[in-house]
From TrEMBL:
UniProt-annotated location(s): Cell inner membrane
Protein name according to UniProt: TRAP transporter large permease
Superkingdom of the organism of origin: Bacteria
Topology within the bilayer: Multi-pass membrane protein
Lineage, highest ranks first: Bacteria, Pseudomonadati, Pseudomonadota, Betaproteobacteria, Burkholderiales
Organism, as annotated: Ramlibacter monticola
Length: 464
């Protein structure tokens, strides 16, 4: 009855959050077993969670980076690093998304922010619009895989899994996905005879390599000084931080300081300096320091607009979480989750078969539901089965998020699809066709991540 009501409301064109809350209320009124006030109570308790406080701050940090001119710096850094390769701007697109993923945490922010710059640049350099849209869409899926990640926060809260472990789990798979996409760009470049888009200049490339080395070397230097040399942690971070800012001013780096955002987050969480929620606040402070004080590209008028946009986005996300909370509770209370679990375990007890079925289900659901809603509905259904089959919940969280990100590229509800269609001024049909070739590296990465859990769990097990 509950599932039928939900599907009927969805078919009637209602937003998914209203469909979930409305079907739960109608079922309660029909059954007469519970007071209608239970709907409000469960919705409020569903978002009364400390980890969920990270959501508005991660959204704010991404919006601040987007509006402080950081996207141009990321693009210029990626252009200097890989723009001279064959199919240069395609590689720039992927590398830029890898960097921006460490700040935004969402695929839509990546597609709308950095994607706008990348598609225009690729069209100006003579690339087909369809190729530009395809590579931008594929690389946007890196946003929630490479930390920080809003879907990981939601999943961690729903499945009672460490958000820090989920963040670490996304690093290596994100790198694997980026390599797969760059190999796909290289294939198209070889097939079409494309060259580089900027002239190879050693001083530009060497500067970009130095920037990369600084980003990798800074946390390594802090670790060596604290762990090996025994220096006080706070003093070491302060001294190395001052040296980092001095080097940025001296060498006029493009993107060292913005790229340090995920380093700040992951380093703080793995060392226990702050929780993911506090880390999200630290990311906002870092973004404001860069925008207001260091680069001086963020005005107060723009800051107010960013805050209002953040409030709007946060309200939408948390309303979906609240509605999914009552809907998930009703699924459990009515025995739907237990029935599905019994059916699946009666059908197979092989983890690899369950993962195959779960992938098909999540890919299908991802085409129709927004990731936050899909996570809050699927977690109560699938996580108990994972626990019975011995599947690691950190590994399964990454598999779930990647499936739902691929779903964002498909009609009828793919938000990245619609954002890029608007940015590129293409029809939804042409945009869909443009994205199809890029499903090959994405699905190949999904298969690898699903069936090689060691690639996902190596870093979390190293630190947790």
């Amino acid at each position: 009855m509950l599932k039928v009501l939900f599907l009927l409301l969805m078919a009637g064109g209602l937003p998914v959050a209203i469909a979930m809350a409305g079907s739960s209320l109608l079922y309660i009124l029909y059954s007469g077993n519970l007071p209608p006030f239970v709907v409000i109570h469960r919705m409020v308790s569903g978002i009364d969670s400390f980890p969920l406080l990270a959501v508005p701050f991660f959204i704010l940090a991404g919006n601040l980076m987007n509006n402080a001119g950081i996207t141009n710096r990321i693009y210029n850094y990626a252009l200097a690093l890989v723009g001279w390769l064959k199919g240069g701007l395609g590689h720039v697109n992927v590398v830029g998304s890898v960097v921006f993923a460490g700040m935004s945490g969402t695929a839509i922010a990546d597609a709308a922010g950095l994607g706008t710059i990348e598609i225009k640049a690729m069209k100006d350099h003579g690339y087909e619009t369809e190729f530009a849209v395809g590579v931008t869409a594929a690389s946007a899926t890196l946003g929630p895989i490479i930390p920080p990640s809003l879907p990981f926060v939601i999943y961690g809260m729903m499945a009672n899994v460490s958000v820090g472990a989920l963040f670490l789990a996304g690093i290596l798979p994100g790198a694997i996905m980026a390599v797969a996409m760059m190999l796909t760009v290289a294939y198209f470049a070889h097939k079409n005879g494309w060259g580089g888009d900027v002239k190879f200049e050693w001083h530009r490339v060497s500067k970009a390599i130095i920037e990369t080395a600084v980003v990798i070397g800074w946390p390594a230097a802090v670790w060596l000084l604290v762990v090996k040399a025994g220096m006080p942690a706070q003093l070491t971070v302060l001294v190395c931080g001052i040296a980092l800012f001095a080097a940025d001013r001296m060498f006029r780096f493009q993107a060292v300081l913005p790229i340090m955002t995920p380093v700040l987050l992951i380093g703080g969480m793995t060392t226990g300096v702050f929780t993911p929620t506090e880390g999200a606040i630290a990311a906002c402070i870092w973004a404001m320091v860069l925008g207001f004080a260091w680069y001086r590209t963020l005005a107060w008028k723009a800051f107010v607009k960013v805050c209002l946009d953040t409030v709007e986005t946060t309200s939408t996300v948390l309303f979906i979480v609240a509605a999914a909370s009552i809907f998930g509770w009703m699924l459990t209370a009515t025995g739907v989750t237990a029935a599905i679990s019994s059916w699946v375990l009666g059908f197979t007890r092989e983890p690899w078969v369950f993962l195959l079925l779960a992938n098909v289900l999540m890919l299908f659901v991802g085409c129709f539901l927004e990731p936050t809603a899909a996570i809050t509905i699927l977690v109560p259904i699938l996580v108990p089965i994972c626990q019975q089959l011995g599947i690691d919940l950190v590994h399964f969280g990454l598999v779930m998020v990647l499936n739902l990100m691929i779903g964002l590229l498909h009609p009828p509800m793919g938000m990245v699809l619609f954002v890029l269609a608007r940015v590129a001024k293409l029809s939804v049909e042409r945009t869909t066709v443009a994205i199809l070739p890029w499903l090959v590296p994405l699905l190949a990465s999904l298969v690898f991540i699903t069936y090689v859990p060691k690639a996902v769990l190596w870093l979390p097990k190293l630190f947790y």
